[in-house]
Specification:
Structural class: mainly beta
Distance between the termini: 62 Å
Strand order of the largest sheet: 7-8-9-10-11-12-13-1-2-3-4-5-6-14
Helix content: 10-25%
Shape: globular
Order of helices and strands: HHEEEEEEHHEEEEEEEE
Largest sheet: 14 strands, mixed
Radius of gyration: 20 Å
Length: about 260
């Protein structure tokens, strides 16, 4: 089975000599089967003063464009999208942000549609870039590189065909590592669909190293989520909304 998975990934990139789906695109496509997903996410980021900033969230996701995220730390904030209108409010703020889903900018729309806990944000950057298959290793039998012009990314898969490492270099020489994320502690939420419950990122900038550890707890896919969780009107009683983040703190609050 492992050999078949790896062969299929490689074959999809080189079959017939034609322009074909990349390894990254195949990994992205695996998330298409996820119609709903719920999980808890904890993200720890060490700070220069020795403390750690912890972000705690409970997430409910449903296609198309439905999302409920309750952030508990460092700021209490709730995000609700009912598929038509996106709303977000941080506790204590004079106003919330709201905009029709169709009017969200590209970044916000991508984040809304990204499967929680997945690596879609990194894979999307490279899936359409020119791909070169690299020699595999015992740890990473399949490795694919992507030339983005201003950077060079390497996607590494483990023996099960799962994304196990994502690296970003400044050039194809691969001598200047800029960022690396290692994925482990996998849960197969659907056949062939994996969520890495431990994601460890390291970024090097101007001689400094920054680390970021994300843990995904109890990911559950394609189980029914109560419709009321996506009803924004039920969570923001009395909140005034504006359509620009810059307007949240400015001007008098009307009630």
């Amino acid at each position: 089975m492992r050999i078949w998975i790896l062969a299929a990934l490689v074959w999809g990139s080189v079959a017939g000599g034609a322009v074909a789906e990349t390894v990254a695109a195949r990994l992205m496509a695996s998330y298409d089967a996820v119609q709903t997903l719920s999980c808890a996410i904890r993200r720890d980021m060490p700070l220069p003063d020795g403390n750690t900033m912890r972000m705690l969230s409970r997430v409910y996701y449903q296609r198309p464009d439905k999302l409920h995220v309750e952030n508990h730390s460092p700021v209490k904030r709730r995000t609700v999208s009912d598929g038509t209108v996106f709303r977000q409010y941080a506790e204590g703020a004079p106003r919330g942000f709201s905009r029709p889903v169709g009017e969200l900018n590209e970044e916000m729309l991508f984040n809304l549609r990204m499967v929680p806990g997945s690596a879609m944000n990194l894979l999307a950057m490279v899936q359409d870039s020119p791909e070169t298959l690299l020699d595999g290793t015992a740890e990473f039998p399949v490795r694919a590189a992507y030339d983005r012009g201003h950077s060079y990314a390497v996607v590494s898969l483990d023996a099960e065909g799962r994304l196990a490492r994502f690296e970003m270099f400044s050039s194809a020489a691969m001598t200047d590592l800029q960022a690396r994320t290692d994925y482990s502690v996998f849960v197969e939420v659907l056949p062939g669909v994996w969520i890495a419950c431990l994601q460890q990122a390291r970024i090097w900038m101007e001689g400094l190293e920054r680390t970021d550890t994300t843990r995904v707890d109890n990911p559950v896919a394609n189980e029914e989520i109560p419709a009321g969780l996506f009803d924004g009107a039920g969570f923001f009683a009395g909140v005034e909304f504006v359509d620009d983040y810059k307007k949240i703190m400015s001007g008098p609050v009307s009630r």
